[in-house]
Structures are given as structure tokens and as C-alpha cells.
Amino acid sequence: MDERNNMNEKQENKDVKKSPLKEYFSCFKMNTKSIAYNAIIAALYVILTYAFFFCSYGAIQVRVSEMLMILVFFNPNYTVGLTIGCLLANIYSVTAGLTAMDMLFGTLATFISCILMSVCKHLLFACLIPAFINGIVIGSEITFLFSNLSDSREATILWFTNFGYVTAGEIIAISVIGYTLFMFAIKGSKRKILNVIHAKRNLDFRF
Known about the structure:
Elements: H1 2-18, H2 20-25, H3 32-51, H4 71-74, H5 78-89, H6 101-118, H7 123-146, H8 152-185, H9 190-196
Helix pairs in contact: 3-5, 5-6, 6-7, 7-8
């Protein structure tokens, strides 16, 4: 009887380990180390955004700090730091005429992108997700603020224009700059880099 119970317990433990949902949420920890790393990521995001202030806001933008989004592909816990970093960076979006709306919708776009990227299995495909999410959200935000919504034709043309600009900028920041730098970094020391960024998922990722 005891032997059968032990076998059932082992099977249950095995099933728990295989549960994708439990594995995913196990990456989220709010211990001292996690808070420290997320604080660093948030600070890096803000610093890079302000350092390249001239191209970080507006429809035509290449927000270099977005390349840090690659981190959530390997550890969903960085969603916290990146979301906070985006919120803080967007405080100054008022200088681009986007008002406080960008603090809400821009940050929301980053949060959604982080969640979707972290469940992907292909790195390059994951890098394209923020481009389309931001293209839709930020493109809509800019269109709402700067177009004549009573003229549906004008608003539609402007939306597609803004969507194209924002999406292209995100692709350059993440899929070109971020992806290229990351692939160059792991070329000779993949395991070392994954250890440095505390990778929890996609350790055998496909490019």
C-alpha cells in the first residue's frame, strides 16, 4: 500500500513539474535579489530612453531601450522592471505632446508585449511582438491625439502611417539592434550570458 502511495506521489510531482502554467509562474519571485535585478532593469530602461531622448518619443521613434525586452524571453520576472521602467520613462512623453496618455497606454503596451514575448519559443518571432503591439497601441494613441477624428478617411490614413512608423522603429530597436547585440554576445559564451541574465526559460531557444 505504501509503495503504491509513493508511486502516486511521484507521478503527481512529475505532473506538476511538467505543468507549463506552474513552470511559468514559478519564474515570478519578489525576493531581495529579484527586486534588485528588476530595479537595475528599470533604471537601465529609463537611462537608455533619456540618453536617446531625441528618438524615443513620438510617431517616428527608435526607442533603443526597448532592446531590453529580449530579457523577458528568458525570464518573465523582468516584466516588472521593464514595465516600471517604461512608466517612468514615459513621464517625459509630455514633451512630445503625448500627454499623460502615454504613461497609461505606452506602459500597457510594454506590459502586454512582455507577457506575450515570455511565452514564445522562437526568439526572433518574440522580438517582433512588441513591434506590432506598440504599433497598434501607440499608433492609435497618436492618431487619437493628432488627427481629425470626424474625417474617417484622414484618421484611417494617419493611423496606418503612425502604425508603420512605430512598428518600424520597434523592429529596428529590438529585432535589429537588440537581437544582433544579443546574438553577438552569446556567440562564444552562451551559457555564461544566460547565467548573467538569470535565464529561467527557453534555455534551448531557437533563433
